[in-house]
Design a protein that fits this description.
Elements (H helix, E strand, L loop, with lengths): L3 E7 H13 L4 H12 L14 E7 L2 H13 L5 H13 L3 H8 L1 H12 L2 E7 L4 E11 L6 E7 L4 E6 L3 E10 L5 H9 L10 E6 L1 H9 L6 E6 L2 E5 L2 H8 L6 E5 L1 H16 L3
Helix pairs in contact: 2-4
């Protein structure tokens, strides 16, 4: 017989759980069972307050958690089951998103850390079944603490890359050791971590007055300003970062350099125009 649990939570926390299920490709049932399995023996103070807006979540304990559930309640002298679960869920939800991700991907993270420490070549498989071999250097987070990345050298593509942690399905640490080449570059990236590896890369763009307002407003993936004169800006920015950031600007930005990026925007706008003619 299933053990079904209902818990009242504030709407903010419910929204976080739902967003994380989508971001981390996990079901609500699996997410809360994982939280329970990791936090069930921690002493968690009731430091969180509920908001007026509330909702109910319902889930079933999986077989492993169900077998120990009542022993845990008895051992910790739990009087109110829902409050016990609520505290664990709140402990999880009130962390920054990148911390929640590290918590959920703990097994993969520990393997990556081992590979980094021991300079081991590692084989990773992505969610879409792609595979590659890497030499990992660092687990970094975005400036807004929205996600974690594996900074590495991809031995197949022969490039330095950042791979999103939540796109990795499995990782296998091989016995092959490989020394870090270009150590100065690697250490600079680690010190000033940037998911887009923009170190040494620049773009030039002209911003309209509205474009300047967008630059001040949109923080996600915003590049660093190197210099600006009137409407001409120079950014420390890779092409990939520029593609993600400046597509929001539409006609409020004109990419000047590099030419390859300017051509990319030109082609995209031409293709978009055809849909409206």
């Amino acid at each position: 017989m299933e053990k079904k649990i209902r818990v009242t939570l504030n709407k903010y926390v419910i929204d976080i759980l739902e967003a994380d299920c989508q971001s981390f490709k996990i079901t609500k049932n699996s997410l809360i069972n994982y939280i329970f399995s990791k936090l069930k023996e921690e002493k968690i103070d009731n430091i969180y307050t509920d908001e007026d807006s509330k909702g109910i979540i319902q889930f079933n304990l999986n077989k492993l958690n169900k077998n120990i559930y009542y022993d845990i309640l008895a051992e910790q002298k739990i009087q109110v089951e829902a409050d016990f679960i609520r505290k664990m869920v709140y402990r999880y939800a009130y962390q920054a998103k990148n911390s929640r991700e590290l918590f959920l991907y703990e097994e993969i993270v520990e393997r990556i850390k081992y590979g980094i420490k021991n300079k081991r070549v590692s084989k990773i498989t992505f969610d879409d079944s792609r595979k590659t071999s890497i030499l990992p250097f660092h687990i970094g987070t975005s400036k807004l603490e929205l996600g974690n990345y594996i900074f590495c050298y991809d031995l197949i593509d022969e490039k330095y890359k950042n791979y999103k942690l939540n796109n990795i399905k499995t990782i296998f640490i091989t016995q092959e050791k490989k020394e870090w080449e270009n150590r100065e570059f690697i250490e600079n990236v680690i010190k000033n971590f940037d998911p887009f590896l923009s170190q040494g890369k620049k773009i030039k763009a002209i911003l309209s007055s509205e474009g300047k307002k967008l630059l001040a407003t949109i923080a996600l993936n915003r590049p660093e300003i190197i210099s600006n004169t009137d409407n001409l800006y120079e950014f420390r920015c890779s092409e990939e970062q520029a593609k993600r950031y400046f597509t929001y600007f539409l006609d409020e930005v004109e990419i000047i350099e590099p030419l390859s990026l300017r051509e990319w925007f030109k082609e995209k706008y031409q293709l978009a125009l055809k849909k409206y003619i």
